[in-house]
Amino acid sequence: MDNQMQFEYNVEGGNFTRAGYASSQIKKILKQLNVDIAIIKRTVVAAYEAEVNVVAHAYSGTIYVDIDTEAVKIKLVDEGPGIPDIDQAMEEGYSTASSQVREMGFGAGMGLPNMKKNADKLEISSEVEKGTTVEITMFLNDKG
Amino acid sequence: MKIKEIVKILDARVVCGEDQLEQTIDVAFASDLMSDVLTLKNDNVLLITGLANLQTIRTAEMSDISCIIFARNKKVSIELIELARENEMIVLECRFSVFKTCGLLFTAGVKPIF
Ligand SMILES: Nc1ncnc2c1ncn2[C@@H]1O[C@H](COP(=O)(O)OP(=O)(O)O)[C@@H](O)[C@H]1O
Ligand SMILES: [Mg+2]
């Protein structure tokens, strides 16, 4: 592959029809690059839960994807309510999701813990009433 | 088990993927909670669900699930079928409840994940 590739996707808060579009594109790109299928699955599962979180909990967001020979980095930057207590949000079962989100098959407070399990590195920062940034890093060779 | 046998056991309607019924599945999982489906590590999983929306297809796509059964006569939208086709998935509809669907498949020898 080329030394470096970058992609960008917009995410609309509340738009469940489109939720997963970016993660789907990421999957197609990684497949084309012949990335190991087990790594692809972990990457897109984490990306998709993160993308759904922007749709479910924020107003709008941008997903920046950065791929080089070593790693895939997926950074989701959203404008939204932010997360007041990140440790609490990471707990299995903690959720503030609306009933609309639960009707979509999410909102059980399993997204962040599952992202943590699948990502090689997960970094979250957030500012209340501004927004949240989630960065997922996947190493393509031996875990760094 | 071959998908075509599953179609027969459930008297299911094949919504899309008619040409892939020779494919086989190893195990089955039933849930309406997509976050739950996204924790599965297995390959070749058959998903049985009552949640018929686009996120069901997206979840299957991310999880490499290629066969989905919508139980209890859940009617799928055109958009759902289009997205499933794009992903070369097999989508089945059956009239039984999730419970009965699982019971019939379990009795026929389809293995659970857990
Ligand atoms: N991007 C985000 N913006 C604001 N809050 C978020 C965001 N992502 C997660 N959260 C908060 O963290 C909680 C837990 O997230 P998660 O584990 O994905 O579960 P769920 O999305 O099912 O509620 C959410 O209910 C929400 O309160
Ligand atoms: Mg979530």
How would you briefly describe this protein structure?
The complex is a heterodimer of chains A (144) and B (114). Chain A has 144 residues and is α+β, with helices and mostly antiparallel strands. In chain A, 35% of the residues lie in helices and 30% in strands.
Question: Can you put this structure into words, describing what you see?
Answer:
The complex is a heterodimer of chains A (144) and B (114). With 144 residues, chain A is an alpha+beta fold. Chain A is built from five helices and five strands, in the order E-H-H-E-E-H-H-H-E-E. Chain A has a single domain, classed as Heat Shock Protein 90 (2-Layer Sandwich), CATH 3.30.565.10. Chain A is 35% helix and 30% strand. In chain A, strands 1-2-3-5-4 form a five-stranded antiparallel sheet, covered by helices on one side. In chain A, strand 4 (121-127) and strand 5 form a beta hairpin. Chain A starts with a strand and ends in a 5-residue tail after the last strand. The mean pLDDT of chain A is 96. Chain B has 114 residues and is an alpha/beta fold. Chain B has one domain: Udp-n-acetylmuramoylalanyl-d-glutamate--2,6- Diaminopimelate Ligase, Chain: A, domain 1. Chain B is built from five helices and six strands. In chain B, strands 1-5-4-3-2-6 form a six-stranded mixed sheet. Classes of the chains: A alpha+beta (144), B alpha/beta (114). The A-B interface holds A 16-17, 19-20, 23-24, 27, 37, 41, 44-45, 47-49, 52, 104-108, 110-111, 114, 117 and B 32-39, 51, 53-56, 58-59, 61-64, 79. The complex binds adenosine-5'-diphosphate (ADP) and magnesium ion (MG). Adenosine-5'-diphosphate (ADP) binds next to helix 2 and helix 5 of chain A.
Strand order of the largest sheet of chain A: 1-2-3-5-4
The residue ranges of chain A in which pLDDT falls below 50 over 5 or more consecutive positions are none
Could you describe the largest sheet of chain B, including whether it forms a barrel? Answer: 6 strands, mixed
Q: What's the CATH architecture name of chain A? A: 2-Layer Sandwich
The CATH superfamily of chain B is identified as: HprK N-terminal domain-like
What small ligands are held by the chains?
A: adenosine-5'-diphosphate, magnesium ion
Shape of chain A: globular
Alpha-carbon distance between the two ends of chain B: 18 Å
Q: Output the helix-strand order of chain A.
A: EHHEEHHHEE
What amount of the residues of chain B lies in strands?
15-25%
- Provide the domain count of chain A: 1
| Helix count from the secondary structure assignment of chain B | 5
CATH architectural label of chain B: 3-Layer(aba) Sandwich
CATH class of chain B: Alpha Beta
| Rg estimate of chain A, integer Å | 15 Å
Stated plainly, the CATH topology of chain A is called: Heat Shock Protein 90
Q: Decide which structural class fits the backbone of chain B.
A: alpha/beta
Count of β-strands of chain B:
6
What is the H-and-E element order of chain B? HEEHEHEHEHE
Major sheet strand order of chain B: 1-5-4-3-2-6
